[in-house]
């Protein structure tokens, strides 16, 4: 591959082929959209009734993402950070998480005390950490999977 973008597009192509085969086997109607989002390939399955591919709290989606990453690894020999979305679930969840982060920031600003959030998946924690950092505050993850959670902390004066 000549560039990082080409490499990510290749990952997206492998993922799309894998997912199209999976959709055919499972008899789901859906179209595959591919993109490059920053430093990772982004693949979305859209259309039809896809709620079974999302599952409760995105559990099935997370499993599909890992299987898709494994399919890419099998072809390339390199670990993929590919992000999979189904029916806009992750995009919608990201908006909810930013709102949760904003509420935690407001609570921290009011009380001055660290705010512990509910357990979240790694994807969800990253979204919250990014939103907290963008607000100029600090955050850290505590606990162990699957009960790992974000703690929102005041900014450090360094």
Question: What is this structure, in a nutshell?
Answer:
The protein is an alpha+beta fold. It has helices at 4-26, 51-54, 59-76, 89-111, 122-134; strands at residues 31-37, 40-46, 83-86, 115-119, 138-142, 149-153. It has five helices and six strands, in the order αββααβαβαββ.
Name of the CATH superfamily of the largest domain: K homology (KH) domain
Strand order within the widest beta sheet: 1-2-3
Helix content: 40-55%
Number of structural units classed as domains: 2
Q: What name does the CATH topology of the largest domain carry?
A: GMP Synthetase, Chain A, domain 3
The fraction of residues assigned to DSSP E strands is 15-25%
Rg, nearest Å:
18 Å
Question: Which spans have pLDDT < 50 for at least 5 consecutive residues?
Answer: none
General description of the model:
By secondary structure, this protein is of the alpha+beta class. The chain folds into two domains: about 5-85, 2-Layer Sandwich (GMP Synthetase, Chain A, domain 3); about 90-155, R3H-like domain (Ribosomal Protein S8, Chain: A, domain 1, 2-Layer Sandwich). The protein is about 50% helix and about 20% strand. It has helices at about 5-25, 50-55, 60-75, 90-110, 120-135; strands at about 30-35, 40-45, 85, 115-120, 140, 150-155. The strands form two sheets. Strands 1-2-3 form a three-stranded mixed β-sheet, sandwiched between helices. Strand 5 (about 140) and strand 6 (about 150-155) form a beta hairpin. Helix 1 (about 5-25) packs across helix 3. The protein is elongated, with a radius of gyration of 18 Å. The relative contact order is 0.11.
């Amino acid at each position: 591959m000549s560039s990082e973008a080409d490499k990510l597009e290749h990952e997206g192509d492998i993922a799309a082929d894998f997912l199209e085969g999976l959709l055919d086997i499972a008899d789901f109607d859906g179209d595959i959209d591919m993109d490059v989002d920053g430093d990772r390939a982004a693949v979305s399955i859209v259309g039809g009734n896809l709620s079974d591919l999302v599952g409760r709290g995105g559990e099935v989606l997370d499993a599909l993402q890992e299987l898709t990453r494994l399919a890419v690894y099998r072809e390339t020999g390199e670990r993929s950070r590919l992000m999979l979305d189904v029916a806009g679930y992750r995009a919608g969840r990201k908006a909810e998480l930013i709102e949760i982060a904003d509420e935690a920031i407001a609570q921290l600003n009011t009380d001055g005390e660290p705010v512990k959030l509910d357990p979240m998946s790694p994807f969800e924690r990253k979204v919250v950490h990014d939103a907290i950092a963008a607000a100029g505050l600090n955050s850290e993850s505590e606990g162990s999977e699957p009960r790992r959670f974000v703690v929102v902390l005041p900014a450090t004066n360094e």
